[in-house]
Write a structure and sequence with these properties.
The chain is of the alpha/beta class and 738 residues long. The chain has 22 helices and 26 strands. It has a 5-stranded mixed beta barrel with strand order 22-23-24-26-25. A 5-stranded parallel β-sheet has the order 4-3-5-6-7, with helices on both faces. The chain has a 5-stranded mixed β-sheet with strand order 8-9-10-12-11, with helices on both faces. The N terminus is likely disordered.
């Protein structure tokens, strides 16, 4: 440890507050719930692996729920679709159009959910013997999101569509739907986005959306494709009751098996980041089996184009990271209808051509989005993650409109803040996309701003949205958004990483990690278990492709590798390098690495922090603290037996030669400084230092060595003790100071 020298000075500081969890290299606080012992035992008795039992118990599961959870079925979770407002009315109208062989217009969004909804809708019509449907996906650049009056009227005039179904859009399209109604177009809206908070609905024959304020179906977690699936369950019911499936006059002999369409529902549910519980969980569990079986020729061709082998499973990760981005790419930088056209194509040659084109467009999309992300982050350079809890807003003038959402997402991750990236549209205004954190409903913020005239328009849901505004509205909107953000837990507490469980390295066997697979499908609301691997020594660091880290951790005889992406040359990467050979806690997920026939545990790292409550014996014992023997606390439990503190008097101490490893703020007012010398680690606290000259000096000293003057004390948290200093002042370390 750095040298500790006793002095006789004293100072008046604010009283110590309740100890907070240790802050990490990312400046986050990790939250760890208690493990309910009784639930854990019951789940083990129900057949769960001990590691799985602990995770499920922490997440609130009872043993009786376990069997149904691991085999969630559609029949057990599918409600009566008529529970949704206007469902019966809309289903009866489309069933009538099928019987009458009326042309049906299909208007949908250009993202994965929109494309999958359109593909499902048109395939379901075909299964019902109806092949007269006209698809229109608006041009993302020229027309923007959602239906527009010009496009709807063109479908009526040019395509003969007096009945149009609007999918994954339309819930706040008041003016376009009013124009359509005036022209005699019957509109059936099937959407899932946030409705207007006043309860106002657009004009239309039927407005089906479980997020209507008056909808009590409890299906507000469905994406548009999920709602569309429920819609066709209702349509087929209407047709069956009407005796439609009789094999005559081109009608099918049998009722179509709609369950075969769940691959499209699963793809959309995953890519639209919907909550994976209840019906959504059942949809995805059934759907990924169909995806892996390559039921849909368009998805099979896209998987081949992306390099997924025919015998490889298509799972949640494949959907979110491989297939989804390629379908989205068409809407972002190519023809907006590219993804939907692939999903409704029937000719094998056309399918192959469209799949290859989407793959090529995705390569272009990635190059464009990387450039926009870099430009946005340059504008946000002064925004400090964890400290600046406000809207991150960047204007990238020459950005392609189709990629600003991707860039907003990457900037959100980099800045730990709700983020909007906008660019210039063809009308000279600003248009962009938003990505948010769980505690900040960006869709509501945008909608409220539009309703109050702060911006031209926009909408979305909790985690994402889109908006239009003029240059002169930027300051007002940012102020409006920041005022809303200040009301949130995010503003009060910052970004907090929630772990499910604290484990020792030896607990992560191949069998234990495999047992967590019973929780699949993983996704929003059913995330891969986050684990804190406690007190492991960072034994080795290797760079991969000059971008990533492969780290080796050791605990006793057990060694496990971990991967951390994109950290080479970053402050996070530098912090990790500075802790080679030290004891660390690792926040991660665990998976099985397969190589040359061998299977071994592997950590996918999210964050790292110094281990503070299991400290190594110091290399020297030059300076203990003098104390009255009757008042001494011996800290043998944390291997600091040579450090003794007098509780009866306040004594100042000089700590010399300590390295400043990390600095974070506490409640937006105080500074917490992590210090070490390679053998031990302590925390220094400086009260009410945020925004002062001392904060500036300390941040400039990060990574260097300092001498500190302050009151040495013991911090107790969760029954464990560690060394802490209440800081009075500091200076750059000088070897000859003492």
């Amino acid at each position: 440890m750095a040298n500790v020298v006793e002095t006789q000075a004293g100072q008046d500081e604010p009283p110590a507050e309740t100890a907070e969890p240790i802050s990490s290299f990312k400046g986050r606080v990790w939250e760890l719930p208690e493990v309910p012992a009784a639930k854990t035992v019951a789940l083990k008795n129900a057949g769960a692996n001990p590691l799985l039992a602990k995770v499920l118990a922490v997440r609130g599961m009872d043993a009786g729920e376990f069997p149904d959870y691991v085999k969630t079925l559609i029949k057990d979770t599918m409600p009566d679709p008529f529970a949704m407002q206007d469902m019966e009315k809309g289903a009866k109208r489309i069933a009538q159009a099928i019987r009458d062989k009326q042309r049906i217009g299909v208007w949908s969004d250009y993202d994965v959910d929109g494309a999958a909804s359109a593909g499902l809708f048109i395939e379901a019509l075909r299964l019902c013997g109806h092949r007269d449907a006209v698809l229109r996906i608006p041009d993302r650049i020229k027309e923007g999101y959602g239906p527009n009056a010009k496009g709807l009227l063109e479908m009526q005039k040019d395509e003969g569509c007096d009945l149009i179904c609007c999918l994954d859009a339309g819930i706040v399209a008041f003016e376009p739907l009013k124009a359509a109604a005036a022209a005699g177009i019957e509109m059936v809206v099937i959407d899932h986005h946030n409705a207007d908070q006043s309860g106002k609905l657009p004009e239309g024959y039927a407005i089906i959306n479980p997020n209507r304020l008056d909808d009590t179906s409890g299906l507000d977690h469905l994406c548009a494709a999920g709602v569309t699936f429920c819609f066709f369950v209702a349509v087929v019911r209407e047709l069956r009751e009407a005796g439609y499936f009789d094999g005559k006059d081109g009608r099918p002999q049998e009722r179509p098996e709609l369950m075969n369409l769940l691959d499209l529902v699963a793809l959309a549910t995953i890519c639209d980041v919907m909550k994976l519980y209840g019906l959504n969980r059942a949809f995805v569990m059934a759907g990924v089996k169909l995806l892996s079986a390559r039921r849909h020729p368009g998805i099979a061709a896209l998987a081949r184009a992306a390099g997924i082998k025919d015998d490889e499973p298509i799972d949640e990760k494949s959907c979110g990271w491989v297939l989804g981005p390629r379908i989205n790419a068409g809407g972002r930088v190519g023809a907006s209808d590219s993804g939907a056209r692939l999903l409704i194509a029937e000719d094998p040659g056309e399918i192959e051509q469209r799949a290859q084109a989407l793959h090529a467009i995705n390569v272009e999309r990635k190059e464009l989005s990387d450039a926009v992300t870099e430009a946005a982050l340059q504008q946000l350079e002064g925004m400090l993650p964890g400290r600046d809890r406000r809207l991150a807003f960047a204007v990238v003038e020459d950005a392609h409109e189709g990629v600003v959402g991707i860039s907003a997402g990457k900037a959100k991750e980099a800045k730990d803040a709700p983020t909007i990236v906008v660019t210039r549209d063809h009308q000279g205004n600003l248009k962009g996309s938003a990505r948010s954190l769980s505690d900040v409903n960006i869709g509501h913020i945008i909608q409220d701003a539009a309703a109050e005239g702060v911006i031209l328009g926009g909408g979305g849901h909790g985690m994402a949205g889109g908006l239009n505004l003029r240059d002169d509205q930027i300051d007002g909107f940012v102020a409006f958004a920041d005022a809303q953000i200040r009301k949130t837990e995010y503003f009060r507490e910052g970004v907090r990483s929630r772990a499910d469980l604290e484990v020792q390295l030896k607990e992560l066997s191949v069998a234990a990690i495999e047992s967590l697979g019973q929780m699949r499908p993983f996704g929003n609301g059913n995330e891969v278990p986050n684990l804190i691997v406690k007190s492991v020594v960072l034994e080795d660091i290797r760079e991969l492709k000059e971008k990533h880290f492969k780290l080796t951790f050791k605990s006793g005889p057990v060694r496990v590798d971990g991967l951390l992406w994109g950290v080479v040359g970053t402050p996070l990467g530098d912090s990790i390098k500075a802790h080679l050979g030290r004891a660390l806690d690792v926040l991660c997920t665990a998976e099985i690495n397969e190589f040359n026939g061998n299977r071994s545990p592997q950590l996918m790292i999210e964050d790292i922090r110094p281990t503070l409550d299991v400290l190594e014996e110091p290399q020297s014992s030059e300076a203990g603290l003098a104390a009255d023997a009757d008042d001494i606390i011996a800290l043998a439990a944390v291997d600091l037996a040579e450090v003794e503190i007098n509780q009866g008097t306040r004594r100042m101490s000089l700590v010399t030669g300590a390295r400043v490893d990390a600095i974070t703020d506490v409640k937006g007012k105080h500074l917490k400084v992590m210090l070490s010398d390679g053998s031990r680690t302590i925390t220094a606290l400086k009260w009410n230092a945020i925004g002062t000259e001392k904060e500036d000096r300390m941040r400039k000293a990060e990574g260097g060595f300092v001498n500190l003057l302050g009151e040495l004390e013991i911090n107790e948290w969760r029954g464990k003790k560690s060394l802490q200093i209440k800081l009075k002042d500091f200076e750059a370390h000088q070897e000859a100071l003492i």
